[in-house]
Amino acid sequence: MIKVKRLSHATFETPDVQRQVDYFTQVCGLQETGRENGTVFLATKVGDLAIRLDRGNESKCARIAFQVDPATDFADVRKGLEAEGIKVKESSDVAPGIPRQVSFEDPKGTVLEVFAGQTPIGKNAEVKGIGPLKLGHLAFCVDDPKKYEAFYAKVLGFRTSDWIEDWFVFMRCGPDHHTINFVRGKRTIMHHIAFELKDAAQIFSACDFLGGRNIKLTWGPGRHGPGHNIYTYHRNPDDQIIELFTELDKMLDEELGYFEPRPWHRDRPQKPKVWHGPSDVWGPPPTPEHLRQRD
Ligand SMILES: [Fe+2]
Known about the structure:
The chain is α/β, with parallel strands linked by helices. It folds into 2 domains: 4-115, 2,3-Dihydroxybiphenyl 1,2-Dioxygenase, domain 1, CATH 3.10.180; 134-294, 2,3-Dihydroxybiphenyl 1,2-Dioxygenase, domain 1. The chain has helices at residues 17-28, 74-82, 145-156, 200-212, 288-291, and strands at residues 4-14, 31-36, 39-43, 49-55, 60-68, 89-95, 98-105, 111-115, 134-142, 159-164, 168-172, 180-184, 189-196, 217-223, 230-235, 241-246, 273-275. Residues 137, 139, 192, 194, 243 line the site of fe (ii) ion (FE2).
C-alpha cells in the first residue's frame, strides 16, 4: 500500500473552458498560470497548482492528483500500487512542476494521479474575487460508499474520519478531517469541490462578494457536525457545487486518534464516529438547489 499525504489538484473537463476560467479567476480567486493546447492551469494566490481545465463534452471531474512523501523513491510508488493489483501507467511532464507520475482508475473511472516530487508553479499573486488558501477536498455521489471507502483505504492509505449513518463517508490522507468524501446518490457524479478560506471573516466577505454578483448560496452559512467546518455552498456556471469552508477539524497525531479539541465539539475527545440524525452544529437546512445533486 502507498500512503498519499496531500490532495494536490483536480482536472475538470468542461464544454466551455473559457467560462470556467472566468469563474475560477474572477469569482473563486485563482490565478491562471499556463495554457497549452486548450488546457488551462490554475493556481492559488500562493502559487500552488489547484485546478487543470480540459475541454470535454460534459462537465466532470476527470482526474485527481495526490502527492506522496517527496522523499519516496518513485519506483516504490509504482511497486506499492502494483502490489495491490493495480495496473498503473507512468507518464512525465503532465502538469507544470510535476516531472513524473503514475496514474490508474478508481472504481467509477476517475483517473487518480500520484506523484512524489513537485516544484511550485506560480508566484505569490494578487487575485480577483475570493482567493482560497487551497483546494481542500472533493466529494462524489456513488452507488456504494463502502466500496469506495475500501478502495481508497487499501490502495492510497486513506483513513476514515466519520460516517453519517451508512450513506456518507469522510476520509483523510493528512491532518485535515477529510480530503475525499463519498455520498450515496442516484447517479455517479461529482458532488462538490471545496476550497479552504483563511477564516470566518473571509467566508462572510465571500458571501458579500457572491451576493453582489447575484450568485445564490445553495446552503449555509453554517457549521457542520462531521468535520465541524464553517461552510457555504454555491453553484458555478458549469452547475458544479462549490464549497467554501474554514475551521475544519484536524487530527494532528494519528496515534492519539482524536481531532484537536474545539469549543464546538460535543464529544470530548472528538474521535471518528458514525453520526445519526441532523448533525450540523448550527445553520439553515440545505435548499432543493443543493439537494438535487444526489438525485
Ligand atoms: Fe465538503
